[in-house]
């Protein structure tokens, strides 16, 4: 029976890997079509220069920045319950940032154009600072993860804490700079708001922990890696209040736009919630995002509902999907409606765009599947270290204890005497 179960798990694992490889190949073929034919095979246009690629870039940068939700409690507040969640968070951050850079690469049309930012640096450009912060944070994350994994007994060296103290503000900075890229465009009033950066951070600190909770539940169920119940509960608290903060910030934007009576801001909201000039491409997506997030907050804030494990996981999925719809589709594309000349145009991604994005996400899932072996090695190493430490402590205790005397018998001889 055990052999049959093992064979079944092996078959499922190879099927999963084969499916991911097939999707990666499909994404590569789609990118080949785009490379040969140009961006004309996408749904982009002069009125809609940014689409699915930039939207997914924005979402993935938030996932990468959310690693601060485990870095800060562990290294600053010394909460050891986040020790294993830290490893998982850093792996997810590295994969998400790599996927974000791939989204930028495919959006440029030719990968070589990405080097122009380094060959011809322009400090006055926010794009330059965005690439600089992303590359720096990715490097810091890789070094921190390597130091943690290769540390003796899974305990990082002292200098790693100093590295983490640099990484934490850097992680927050990458999403702030990304938000400023949008907020600095005066011709796009939908983005030109001071609360865009805080809203980006709030949604990042909601979606990132949501993804970590779901991955932690899957890994624990598969008996691969267990981050601990207390760490999951604290991540759930962070996710809940960050989601509530994102709702508050979005509501403030709606109130400001409607109460001020600024036509451009009102038209933007009308396009999202009601449609504009017969164009209703994002109405269903907007209501779906808000409804999912509000229902999830109801479940997560009511203790009686939150204690139901299945309902809590469903609420976590709802938070992640809500932020994905908001930042991964609605936020970017709606910012171009209406255009500065008053044109209204719905954006629909082409099959080529969808294929490339699916390939990027499948590649990230494939890398994470391979990283599960790293988690297994880390668990085995930590277990050996804890066993060795426990044996050493018991030996030291035995050597340091004075030998029993005649008046003070040992526990082994005291029991027969009482009988």
Strand and helix map with partners:
Layout: H1 2-37, H2 52-65, H3 68-76, H4 83-108, H5 116-119, H6 126-149, H7 158-183, H8 196-221, H9 229-260, H10 263-273, H11 283-301, H12 303-306, H13 309-334, H14 351-400, H15 411-418
Helix pairs in contact: 1-14, 2-4, 2-7, 2-8, 2-13, 3-4, 3-7, 4-6, 4-14, 6-7, 7-8, 8-9, 8-13, 9-11, 11-13
Structure description:
- By secondary structure, the protein is mainly α.
- It has 2 domains: 17-184 and 352-379, no CATH class; 228-349, no CATH class.
- It is 75% helix and 0% strand.
- It has 15 helices and no strands.
- The chain has helices at residues 2-37, 52-65, 68-76, 83-108, 116-119, 126-149, 158-183, 196-221, 229-260, 263-273, 283-301, 303-306, 309-334, 351-400, 411-418.
- It is globular.
- It starts with a helix and ends with a helix.
- The model is unreliable at 385-401 and 405-419 (pLDDT under 50).
- Into how many domains do the coordinates divide? 2
> How many angstroms does the end-to-end distance come to?
49 Å
Rg, alpha carbons: 26 Å
- Low-confidence sequence ranges: 385-401, 405-419
List the secondary-structure elements in sequence, H or E.
HHHHHHHHHHHHHHH
What's the multimeric state? single chain
- How many helices in DSSP terms? 15
- Indicate the percent of residues in helices: over 70%
Largest beta-sheet details: none
Q: Which structural class do the helices and strands define?
A: mainly alpha
Key terms:
419 residues, mainly alpha, 2 domains, 75% helix, globular
Entry summary:
With 419 residues, the chain is mainly alpha-helical.
């Amino acid at each position: 029976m055990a052999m049959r179960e093992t064979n079944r798990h092996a078959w499922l694992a190879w099927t999963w890997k084969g499916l991911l490889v097939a999707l990666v190949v499909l994404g590569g073929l789609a990118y080949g079509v785009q490379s040969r034919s140009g961006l004309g095979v996408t749904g982009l246009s002069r009125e809609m220069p940014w689409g699915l690629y930039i939207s997914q870039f924005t979402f993935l940068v938030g996932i990468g920045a959310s690693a601060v939700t485990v870095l800060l409690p562990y290294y600053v507040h010394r909460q050891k319950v986040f020790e294993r969640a830290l490893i998982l968070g850093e792996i997810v951050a590295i994969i998400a940032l790599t996927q974000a850079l791939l989204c930028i690469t495919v959006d440029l049309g030719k990968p070589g154009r990405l080097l122009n930012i380094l060959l011809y640096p322009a400090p006055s450009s926010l794009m330059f600072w965005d690439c600089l912060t992303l590359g720096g944070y990715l490097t810091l994350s890789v070094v921190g993860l390597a130091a943690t994994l290769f540390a003796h007994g899974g305990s990082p060296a002292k200098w790693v804490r100093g590295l983490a103290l640099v990484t934490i503000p850097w992680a927050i900075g990458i999403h702030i700079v990304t938000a400023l890229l949008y907020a600095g465009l005066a011709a796009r009033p939908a983005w030109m708001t001071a609360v865009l950066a805080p809203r980006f951070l709030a949604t990042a600190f909601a979606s990132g922990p949501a993804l970590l909770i779901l991955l932690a539940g899957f890994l624990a169920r598969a008996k691969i890696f267990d981050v601990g119940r207390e760490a999951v509960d604290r991540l759930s608290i962070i996710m809940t209040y960050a989601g509530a903060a994102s709702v508050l910030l979005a509501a403030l934007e709606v109130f400001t736009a409607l109460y001020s009576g600024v036509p451009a801001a009102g038209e933007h909201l009308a396009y999202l919630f009601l449609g504009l000039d017969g164009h209703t491409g994002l109405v269903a997506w907007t209501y779906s995002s808000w409804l999912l997030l509000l229902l999830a907050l109801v479940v997560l804030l009511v203790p009686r509902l939150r204690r139901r494990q299945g309902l809590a996981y469903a609420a976590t999925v709802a938070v992640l999907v809500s932020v994905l719809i908001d930042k991964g589709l609605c936020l970017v594309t709606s910012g171009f409606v209406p255009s500065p000349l008053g044109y209204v145009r719905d954006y629909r991604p082409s099959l080529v765009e969808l294929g490339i994005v699916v390939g990027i996400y499948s590649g990230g899932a494939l890398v994470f599947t391979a990283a599960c072996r790293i988690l297994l090695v880390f668990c085995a190493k930590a277990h050996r270290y804890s066993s060795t430490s426990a044996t050493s402590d018991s030996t030291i205790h035995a050597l340091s204890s004075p030998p029993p005397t005649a008046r003070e018998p040992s526990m082994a001889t005291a029991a027969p005497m009482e009988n």
